[in-house]
Amino acid sequence: MTSRGHTPPGPPEPSGAEPGRSGSVSGGPAPLTVGAEEEYLLVDPASRALSAEAGQVVAEAARALGDRVTTELTRYQVEARTDPHTSLAAFGEQVRSMRASVARAAASRGLRIVSSGTPVLGQSHPPPLTADPRYARSAAMFRALDDEQSACACHIHVGVSDLATALQVSNHLRPCIPVLIALAANSPYWDGRDTGYASWRTPLWGRWPVAGPPPYFASPAHFEGLVADLISTGSVLDRGGLYWDIRPSHHVPTLEFRVPDATATADETMLLAGVVRALVATALGAIEAGEPAFRPGPEMLRAACWRAARDGLTGAGIDLATGRLSPAVTQVDQLLARLGPALRQHGDADVVHAIWSRLRAEGGGADRQRAAHRRRASLADVVDHLIETTAPTGSGSGRLR
Hints:
Blueprint: E1 24-25, E2 28-29, E3 34-43, H1 54-65, E4 69-71, E5 77-81, H2 88-107, E6 112-114, H3 133-142, E7 154-159, H4 163-173, H5 177-184, E8 189-190, E9 193-194, H6 201-205, E10 211-212, H7 220-232, E11 243-244, E12 246-248, E13 254-257, H8 266-288, H9 298-311, E14 316-319, E15 324-327, H10 328-338, H11 340-345, H12 349-362, H13 365-376, H14 379-390
Parallel strand pairs: 10-11
Antiparallel strand pairs: 1-2, 3-5, 3-6, 3-7, 4-5, 7-13, 8-9, 12-13, 14-15
Helix pairs in contact: 1-2, 2-8, 4-8, 5-9, 5-10, 8-12, 13-14
């Protein structure tokens, strides 16, 4: 559900240069670092029901992953994180290896892992919580909000050197949140039924008092003052409880993108990492050029996020620049065209366009879950599909077909 108390992937220690920005590669700026946290659900392969053995699975997975694997709010969830990378290819290989390690640990308990924004089949209400003082405090403060938070995300971190810069980048990228929601939508089912949404996790998560698109921040002082007020009024537990879609990390110098649902495949995590890194690089260039951030009205930004969560890649999204509807896939195409220079700068253009081409043809995560259901009208088939795509065996592990 979140990264509560768990150190996110950040940039490596700088050696005389600002993390992820200064320095040069072939005469240009150094590549930005990128890392990810992925959250998985544990399921029984026979019943396809959720399993509350996260503590045992994490203990086994730690043999291979060390402190890069941890428990989450509910005992249904396991979280794992990558190291920071400048190479998208190396990042993707670590995501695949990480998924395989967690899958082997689950298999040692007779279980499987699935990467989906929400569980397909029913769950206990309230769910079994991990024994942790912070989670107990959360349950006491937020009450029934915690009852429906066996939802899983993919958090992408990009190295940004300081808070002031991170906030400026966040300001520039707020309008991109709806397109990222559509691109990553992978949670159509909840409690044994089709919700009609491509990303049901998005409105679930939007119930929290500090969630959704972040405010436009005028300065670091504005940010710090708002955070202090939110903590003092009990609206969040602490700085780790700022659940905005984009937020400066409170642990390391990164900007964290919390928008995406947990992705069905490692390829889709690679796609998101490449796109998000290019977004940050493009925003940094705009900031250096003195270009102001586009500020859509909060009402339209909220509406665009809702529409993207409902339709995913299949339908139309709200183009915030025009206020009109346009196909979601067209919006992604336009975004990738705009990010072309940054994608090429990082050497990511070919892999990002190749994965997007396959995703555009085969459908997003939500579309593929529904396709699995249509074959026999079986929710068990959806779970089986997710098991296979999350950490498949063989050379095609984690890749879109």
